[in-house]
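Appendix B. Raw example, untouched.
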Amino acid sequence: MTEHLPDFGFEAPRRLVVEWGSARRIAEILASHLPVTRVLVVTDAVLHGTGLLDPAKAALQAAGIAVTVFDGVVADPSEEILHDCVAQGRAGGVEAVIGFGGGSSLDIAKLAAVLLHSPQELSALYGIGKVQGGRLPLMQVPTTAGTGSEVTNITILTTGAATKMGVVARQLYADLVLLDAELTLGLPPGQTAATGIDAMVHAIEAYTSRHLKNPMSDLYAREALRLLAPNLVAACRDGSNRPAREAMLLGACLAGMAFANSPVAAVHALAYPLGGRYHLPHGLTNALMLGPVLRHNLCAAAPLYAELGDLLAQEGSAHTACQEIRAEGFIRHMEALMDASGAPRRLRDAGVSREMLPQLAADAMLQTRLLGNNPVPVTEADALALYQAAY
């Protein structure tokens, strides 16, 4: 008997441009969609120092566009960093915002575009649908293939020593997203692995989310995983592999669109305390927790894991095994990919102390929004057991 089609909505950025080398003609692309004369570029100091931004900046300036660069973004950015960014944008009288970099830069760009336009206080924006009114025009240019932040309506800020809070609002969707895989050439293997696994986590959790899962998010999640899984190791081993880099960047973007509409769950809930307490990269923390959480969810998510396992199976292989075996095979496939990527595989390898595991479990319980999306409930005792399994 065929199930009824669920009621659902699906949202995404207004326009997506996928083009090798397109950052070099960013001014032309910007002018055709968002004609402005003064822009704020949000990035980080390391990327700015490499010169990766220089061709895009030069193209904007050659087109008569005044460029203010804020390069104060760091991993797990704080509210203070956002306020500094907004202050620099106001001083430059900017008319639009361009996020250029990894997920943290793209996240700060989203909220900067809101606060440069809106009189709302940041504290009033936390939660779902709290942003009122509009924002400045927003363009996003990712330089890593992982977070999917360029196409999501979510920003996460660090609000305390080990706490994070999120803003979720449709105003955070960009007007224009530029996917130029040339910007990801030479990304170090460790960062390639962490961000690539992060993207696969987005696809898997979107596909198995308890809330808002729908045929469109499923479509994007499956295609994301189909692009990411076969290319992760190739991209890690050869930073100049253009086909692998293109597949990873598009796959990460599609995974972002999937989880923006069908939200992530326990892997992220348990990853956030690791980032807050130990300042580990977000992609790495997801990678560390993925295996244990997949096994925790197996009792409820086996049918969906089996479907994803079939998607990744070798061409010509028969999908005749029972659902449980195929689901277990999917988990082993993901664990083997992470092993081959070279990313740290145990919490102890990332400097996490065993004595901190109970505190991490308590911290994870604060992520109620994410835990509610998980296909299997996670208690504090469960969270501690998951951290112990990952240790």
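End of appendix B.
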